[in-house]
Amino acid sequence: MVDKEKNLFIIGDVHGCWHTYSALLGHWEPDTELLIQVGDLVDRGRYSHKCLETSRNLELTHPDGVVFLKGNHELMMIKFLQGKDPRDHWIVNGGRETLLGFAEAVLDILSWRGWLEERGLVWENQHVLVSHAGVSFTENPFDEENRQGVLWNRGTLRDVGKIQVIGHTPQIGGKAAFTESPPSWNVDTGAFRGICLTGIKMDASGVVLEEINIPTDPRDIYEKRVDHLAYALFTK
């Protein structure tokens, strides 16, 4: 069982920016901090496959010390791997880049379906609730298909009696954004847009101890939009 009394190190949307992700992970203190990533490890950047590999390895080596949540991009990827994406919704929303990265590394993308399906939607303790997009005013916030649910919401959050920590909507100022009412932190700082990747450290009661902002490593970003080559490589 995860030790919920550790401090928390919560990382925003990575989107395939592996070099940047690795630099931020260098600030994690496993003995005293629970690592939580809010989802959207994949898509848009060059190295989704390496972000997934790094995360799974951390889960294997620190089984009680890490939590990797599901984001809407993981859900879109799962549907594609299940053959349930007839309109290629994932492909046009960053999946091209992920497919190309797997193809260039000669890796089997289908082998990741199970790990992705196992991702949870929420981590919480008595004071803090972490999810990809936040709990909003909707009847079924934990329905993965609900566009106002915890994978997709971009609207006002509901007061759940805890501090919410979310990603999903990039904060272009390069800093995590705090909203006072209801209390929430957004830690998506647009890594794939060339801004930065952010992690915040909190104690178990939700008091922020430190914010770390790592500028996006240029190696993580495709210079030009990836075309349909990736899809062709997967389907040939």
Automatic annotation (TrEMBL):
It comes from the Bacteria. GO terms for cellular component: cytoplasm. InterPro entries: Ap4A_hydrolase, Calcineurin-like_PHP, Metallo-depent_PP-like, Ser/Thr-sp_prot-phosphatase. Residues 69-74 form the Serine/threonine specific protein phosphatases domain. PROSITE patterns: SER_THR_PHOSPHATASE. It holds the Pfam family Metallophos. SUPFAM superfamilies: Metallo-dependent phosphatases. One of its GO terms (molecular function) is phosphatase activity. One of its GO terms (biological process) is RNA decapping. Transmembrane segments: none annotated. PANTHER family: METALLOPHOSPHOESTERASE (PTHR42850), ZINC-DEPENDENT ENDOPOLYPHOSPHATASE (PTHR42850:SF4). This is Diadenosine tetraphosphatase.
